[in-house]
Amino acid sequence: MEKKTLKGRLDYTAMIIPLLGVVLLCVLFMIMPAKSSYIIQMIRGFLGNDCGIYYAMLGVGIFACSLYIAFSKYGKIKLGKDTDKPIYSSFNWGVMIFTSTMAADILFYSLCEWALYANEKYIDQLGGIQKWASTFPLFHWGPIAWSFYIILAVAFGFMLHVRGRNKQKFSEGCRPLLGNKVDGVVGKIIDLIAIFALIAGTATTFSLATPLLSAALSRVFGLPNGVGLTIAVLLLIAAVYTFTVITGMKGISKLATYCSYLFFALLIYFLIGGGETTYILETGFSAIGNMVQNFIGLSTWMDPLRETSFPQNWTIYYWAYWMVWCVATPFFIGKISKGRTIKNTILGGYGWGLAGTFTSFIILGNYGLAQQMKHGIDISGMIAKSGDYSTVILKIFDTLPLASLGLLLLVITMIAFYSTTFDALTMVVSSYSYKKLDVDEEPDKKIRVFWAIIFILFPIALIFAENSMYSLQSVAIIAAFPIGFIILLIVISFFKDANKYLQEKKENNRDIE
């Protein structure tokens, strides 16, 4: 009886079509890696180069809109009933926000991103590595990036906790604008685009950072490093997050807290163990000031003459990267924000998200920058020559005391971060598999395991295909293009529905008087 009930509740279109799509992409990447990469890069060239302003304007607009919502009449709306109180303490809530995002990616990029910018001639034009290689990571992982998550978290939180809707899908967020069309073909298309984009985002994440984990394990335990070890690491991560997601929201909350402790330990190891505390903090403080001072210029510079194509290669990519991830994470943030006002959710989301991100980039990134600027280790040159990020990051660890223990701490922290991120994603995308699901109800364990397996297939194919970072970035940029339009639909729908809600509340108060 229970099986029949579950079968009757599932939305098979949202499960089977993405599954077939993932299998097809895996086959294409593994059989024709060179041709697949060429086609993807051609499409990326068009979207990033010719349509780059679309991503840039969307980023600036969404950020400005989120601040407007926080300080307008909408900011006073509580996500839930007037009597509801926050489910989680501020610390637990903040930690879950940070760890449900690309936290493992943040660690990976914190260690090497400054070196990628150091190889760009645009950095020399602006004023050099010391000033700008430490600034751009904060900009690209800063307020605009987080705004994609935060504005949708508010829209979904309002949809779930205020309006009490029981369809936890992207399409449902568009209902106030599209009406009953979301129950038909239009809604199916929106949800399928969302799921494909999410799979592309997760594949990019895994394929970039897992080679670092396998290289670190190879160094610490003397294991042969290769595709086999990388896939073993992927399967280990999948096993951890599958186990945690089976335990439900309590397990996710506990793992998020443990992650934060590991993260703090890694930060302290770099900040104090490396002996560059003053340089790290002063460079970070200067970078924040530099970013704030130049924020509008950085947000709108499009290099019209394509003298360096820096915005197209980096800024556009990052906005697209965050857009593909905002399919699931905002649902999770909206869900755990019950009992908080919209203003508190927006400002708290920015506060906790930026605190975790900036701390990581400032401490981990600026330690590596110190090795190049003060001690003459040409880290950016090594990356330019080999393109091997993992080896270069290991080189940075070699300058620290007890390097093997440090690498082990990095591996454990990244696996824990991956697990909490994918716990949140698996929980949310499992909700997509249902025709209807109440806000306080968790998806069936079998559905969660199904999605946990799907999330791991595409990254394995990409690793076998040995795609470059440029190819992996291209996957994210392509997937994000249609997502931008859907984000706009959801934001417009939120304003329409929130205005209606405030009007209803006003009329009810009049009736009571």
Class by SSE composition: mainly alpha
CATH class: Mainly Alpha
Work out the count of structural domains: 1
**Uncertain segments of ≥5 residues (pLDDT<50)?**
none
Average per-residue pLDDT, rounded, comes to: 85
What summary fits the major beta sheet?
none
Overall outline? globular
The helical percent reads over 70%
The helix tally amounts to 24
Query: First CA to last CA: what distance?
Result: 50 Å
What is the third-level CATH name, the topology? Amino acid/polyamine transporter I
Please state roughly what percent of the residues sit in beta strands, choosing from under 5%, 5-15%, 15-25%, 25-35%, 35-45% or over 45%. under 5%
**Under the CATH scheme, which architecture would be assigned?**
Up-down Bundle
Q: What is the tally of beta strands?
A: 0
Reading the helices and strands in chain order gives HHHHHHHHHHHHHHHHHHHHHHHH
Rg calc: 22 Å
Tell me what the structure shows.
There is one protein chain. This protein is mainly alpha-helical and 513 residues long. The protein has a single domain (2-506), classed as Amino acid/polyamine transporter I. Helices cover 79% and strands 0% of the residues. The chain has 24 helices and no strands. It has helices spanning 2-9, 12-31, 33-50, 52-71, 90-99, 103-118, 121-126, 129-132, 136-140, 143-162, 175-178, 185-221, 227-247, 249-273, 277-293, 295-300, 310-325, 329-336, 342-373, 379-386, 389-398, 403-432, 445-464, 469-512. α4 crosses α10 and α10 (143-162) runs parallel beside α17 (310-325). The model has no long low-confidence stretch (mean pLDDT 85).
